[in-house]
## 1
Amino acid sequence: MFYHFSEEDNIEIFHPRKHLSFPDRPPMVWAIDDDRSPLYLLPRDCPRIGFWATPETNDDDREKFLHITSADKIVAIESGWLERLQRTKLYRYSLAPEHFTMIDEGAGYFISYETEKPLEMKPVGSLLEALVKRGVELRIMPSLTPLAEQLPKTTLHYSMIRMRNAIK
């Protein structure tokens, strides 16, 4: 099963659309796998950085970035987004996997070039509670910029989403 998260509660059909980051590709429908879905339990435009250890993560990076957490994943957002996080209503659409292919294994992105009809739509409810239920540690930072500059120098796996909306 794949998912698409939206602040819209009335999507009956997902039509393929062009994506600015992939101008040479035909229109696509985007979906996320279950493992990475906590990265999308946030308002759509909220800049965020998700990061976690992999078997390749070295001890120094574990100590520096993960030393006091038992969470599998950490998601960092900027403090200016906290109020919107608390009041955003989000919906999870379930999509059948038949037409989807992986475009980015690390990010868990899947695409389809077909029109997709959701199998179901469920309200997420409290986004903070949804993150907690998924075992995610939420870090609220004044700015994501220092973290964004450091993570590429580590052995941690990371995903940076909507960073164009982050404080510079």
## 2
Amino acid sequence: MTTAERTEPNRAAASGQAPAPLSVPAPRAGGCPFDPAPAVEQARREEPVTRATLWDGSSCWLVTRHEDVRAVLGDPRFSADATRPGFPFLTAGLRELVGRSSPSFIRMDDPSHARLRRMLTADFMVKKVEAMRPEVQRIADDLLDRMTDGRTSADLVPEFALPLPSLVICLLLGVPYEDHAFFQERSRILLSLRSTAEEVRVSQDELLGYLVRLAESKQRDPDVAIVSRLVARGELDFEEIASMGRLLLVAGHETTANMTALSILALLRNPAQLAKLRDDPTLIKGAVEELLRYLSIVHNGVSRVTTEDVTVGGRTIPAGEGVLCMINTANRDENAFPAADALDVGRDARRHVAFGFGVHQCLGQPLARIELQIALETLLRRLPGLRLDAAFEEIPFRHDMGVYGVHALPIAW
């Protein structure tokens, strides 16, 4: 990282501006754990495009309304390139990693982004993942068989919510599932807001090294999975393939796992909505969209940096300044979703931005939807007595992680 990049984030301090009063990640005290942080939600209501202070004292802009978030994420003048000066990093570890390895395509702009993303598009098309429903259902049933065998209680996270998407993404990538403890631990460190730069560096290097060796092994012994096919294309070196695999491996199990557990908890806390789903399972698809909107597990924003002066929500953001698009407050915007703070499984929530918006919206969203639909339908159908097995106040929410959710979810049936 250059000296300019290290000093650039503190532009507000250098210019004599007072630090922004709102900090990100914002304190959670005093609010419902399903809701956005109170200070960020207040900003959406009172000053929807506002300045905020990051962990290192640097400043960025928060964009909090649904309309404005879609505008930013759909505008190429807001760059996803993390090597640009002014790009807002949520932790020291993420900032220090810039330039240490091949970036994933989510940290690139077009045309480089589009070229790499196209290599994976066919693997995550709706028709392709719909064909996986029987296999995902089999995995869900097997996990539930083991979880309920001779027992009436369990922790849903390690026994169902986490292994379901982990098994599926390993199958797609050609990663041996017996190595899941290794990559889940590295993923945890990479996503933790408390990890030091050194911890992130070590975990990143270990995970990339593992994936490079995997790619090398696929050259000698190919199969039909994604990593092997990327090797066979011959367009990427092993380090680039490893970077792409890291993105899919980490995102492919952490996001869906946390949405699954958090969704079950939210339904248990909203028994009328849970009853609607039990009475009419055809609501499951729409309920998944509503849960994605209501819970929005990206709580600390999607990072961008301006390439020129841009006006958003009546505020002009100068070129070279960082922007965080607050997905969770956008999805709680009453102008887009009436009674937005209420969970309503019958709502048409398809305009949510839980998967982002524009050219960078989540590639794996068709797969995530299927996994969530199957996970929720299977749990509710097979466990009619499903209930929380701990006080709600004792549930350990992931306030310390880049992907929101719960660390554990004790349930009984």
